[in-house]
Amino acid sequence: MPNFKTAQIKQPRSELLDSKSQKCGLRHTVFAVNGNEFTGEWKDNKKHGKGTQVWKKSGAIYDGEWKFGKRDGQGTYSVLLPERKEYSRKYCGEWKNGKKHGYGMYFYNNSSVYEGEWSEDCRSGWGRMYYESGDIYEGEWLKDKNHGKGIIRFAKGNRHEGTWQDGLRNGHGKFYYSDKGQLYEGFWVDGVAKCGTLSDFGRDEAPTPTKYLIPQVQLVDTQSVLREAQAAYLKQC
């Protein structure tokens, strides 16, 4: 009967030496085979505690807390700007299991900034977004999209207060035309106002108020009419 030998998978020499080194406690800079370098604390041969990681390929740097080989706790991630030969901070805040998780601030390339809660590398929970245009959204997020209650203040002074779903205005909301001194209150579907009422609001403070006042709507129950209109529209969808 022939004898068959079980094929043995040979561990790369670099991995073998690394596993035998059993790094533990505070170490000077340790260089990996791929050129990455880490300076900081270790536990059971894994980055654990405070430390700084530099990625050779991208030049990015993470300085903060680690837990069993992954970014976990407070930390700052910065990227290298080749044209300026200097570092630019991208994210500063909490991490969990190697991902942005908790409260933190993220700096986008176009000068937009987000500060608020994160979950699994996504904006989720409460947060405030400063857009390059000057607009500011403050409210609830879910998986990187406006979702829930929120307020967006536009650079020109107008603002919208209401509910959002998947990044779009959905449900009841109020749009304040601060420049004209008017208020629109109604119902939105996928970012489009479907039915509502327009009334004068803050005309005395408005920089460019409308020439004429809006006539008063002579309805016994305005809200009841709006509810019926909303129900009729939703029934068609």
> What is the averaged pLDDT score?
87
Report the total helices.
2
Termini, distance in Å?
74 Å
Query: What composes the largest sheet?
Result: 15 strands, antiparallel
Q: Per CATH, which architecture of the domain at 19-99?
A: Single Sheet
Question: Main sheet: which strands, in order across?
Answer: 1-2-3-4-5-6-7-8-9-10-11-12-13-14-15
Choose one word for the global shape.
elongated
Q: How much is the radius of gyration in Å?
A: 28 Å
| Proportion of helical residues | 10-25%
N-to-C series of helices and strands: HEEEEEEEEEEEEEEEH
What is the third-level CATH name, the topology of the domain at 19-99? Histone H3 K4-specific methyltransferase SET7/9 N-terminal domain
What class would the helix/strand composition place it in? mainly beta
The CATH first-level class of the domain at 19-99 comes to Mainly Beta
